[in-house]
Amino acid sequence: VRPLLKIIAIAILADISISTAQCIALLSGIH
Amino acid sequence: MNYRLLFRLLGVVAMLIGGTMIFSLPWAHPALGYRNAQSTLNEFERSGFWALLVSTLASFAVGAALMWLGRQAQGKLYRKEAMAVVGLSWIIATVLGALPFILCGVERSSSVRVVENSPRLQVFDFGAVVWQHWIDVAIDKDQRAVVQILNRAGARGLSLEELHEQTQLPNPERLLEELANETAWHDVLIFPNTEPAHRGRRGHYRIRWVPMSWIDALFESQSGFSTTGATVISDLEDPVLVPHCILFWRSSSHFLGGLGIIVLFVVILGQGSAGKAMMRAEMPGPTKEGGTARMQHSAWLFTLTYCLLNAILAVLLWLYGMTPFDALCHAFGALATGGFSTYNASVGHFEQVSGVNAVAVEYTIIVFMVLAGTNFTLLYLLFFARQPRKLLGDVEWRAYMLILIGVTLTVVGFGLWHRDFAAERDPQSPLTWTESSSAIRHGTFQVVSIMTTTGYGTHNFDRWNSFGRGVLFLLMFVGGCAGSTAGGLKVIRHVLFMKIMRLEIEHAFHPRVVRPLWLGGKPADDPELRRGILVYFCLILVIFVLSWMAVVTFEPDSTWGASSEQHQHKLIDSASGVAATLNNIGPGLGTVGATENYAKFSPLTKLLFVWLMMIGRLEIFAILVLFAPRFWRDR
Prior knowledge:
The structure holds 2 protein chains of 2 kinds. Chain A is 87% helix and 0% strand. Chain A contains 1 helix and no strands. Chain B is mainly α. Helices cover 56% and strands 4% of the residues of chain B. Chain B contains 25 helices and 9 strands. In chain B, strands 2-3-4 form a 3-stranded antiparallel β-sheet, with helices on one face. Chain B is globular, with a radius of gyration of 25 Å. Chain B starts with a helix and ends with a helix. The A-B interface holds A 1, 4-5, 8, 11-12, 14-16, 18-20, 23, 26-27 and B 320-321, 354-360, 363, 405, 409, 436-437, 440-441.
């Protein structure tokens, strides 16, 4: 189960990072 | 029974409710009460403001009257008085909290329901009071098309030009006029310039919306104070139907309810050996002082922890791009494990709003929902006494996390397998990053939201596979940890129940062996505790089954729609509705599911739900004792 939890944790972090990057891009007018 | 003391304490509760209502007043001003550009009317919400002001004054008047009755109260607060205060204060809070909804004239739902794949429509019966609520009517194809388009436009309605443009029919207004001649439609359709109300909408063709009755208002208020989050309001985004200040009051009632339950828990359930075993962790507070002082100290510490967590979440949500109004309302809903949102699509709404970091919002709310479902004693020890080991080593918290993680993994796994999170359910299409990331996010959110009895939604779980929905239904009965704001049966009761069952099974074949009940490495054997757990499970089962049967018997089939195919959902939907209100969750399955609400039910069923929310929240006894005559007679 541990490797699975690690993969999920990485996926969650990636999900949050992508969304944050999109938000920053939108707010700074790049997008 | 020390009535004077009882009156005085109830007076304080009424004053507190009035005091909290004051904080909702400023949100009537457009400078504060805004959500996003589209929904803002930029007008001072006069009706909401006056409704709240009158309710505030009424609460203060009731409070003052009760305190006058309880003047010169003497004596100590015994268990009996404490129980009476808890039960009665919940009733007073519900009644006073319902006032703003009635006085403001909040409108709850459209009076027309469109039945899928059928030439029939359902029209609200404005004449009936208790029984039949929806009348099936057959209409022709063109009329149906016009009514359907008008209904989709919401309470705003459509101008003549918009009606022509959207229906693509030569003269839709004639069709509506013909319909209005029929009895069933007479009260339902509103023609331009016939009624004065509704700002800027006088010139529109509209469908009448049903105003909240006093039963609806009681339901909404009870749902708020019991931190359930079930609603009867279909459109939260139209400020003409529900002003922002009233929405803020609706969410404030969660805040008060959550605070009430953690503080009352200390006073009521923390007493007695069974209560102590359930609380387990040492109560924070100076140990050398007397019981009352320590209890008061703990109550203050819990209040502080609760308010701080609310503030932290609100600030985080605001930083992610939410407006202060939304951030505060959603923080109240999450920490109280309530679930009232300010949008029809609940938290899922923010995925459509540009400028809001929706993914971060959802994950942050997940973390705070988990915290809200944790025993507040442990949270206090974690944050203020810096003792994380107490939290990590706690039996109940470990079981709680184990269930959360285990169920999340299975639900996400099965969901991916059944392609529940794909835009289109095609088993042949390849698994994309968007689908898998949304599966993890929505799956976790929904499991946490249901298990902690919050009831926020980001995904329509009614579209999930049967296994996923079944698991969510079972989770409703689990709930969070004891001493948290979560409802349900609580994890510790399940842990103890399993242990007791194991001992009982062994007792069947080894009748002479006596084994103690162990909990977290300590003996927790106490006949009172064993009996308490078993009685509680039995009571929940009896109440659930009887209420389920009552809904199935007394609720008209037409609530589920006009076709016999839809009536088949009645049995399972009623069960989920009862489970969702008894365990203080909010959304259930089917007709009370993630995208639905409780507006369609008949007043009788709504009253039953109000009752269920109350006994579920106060763990049954605090309410049931109020109905025992001896409780009031004896000293």
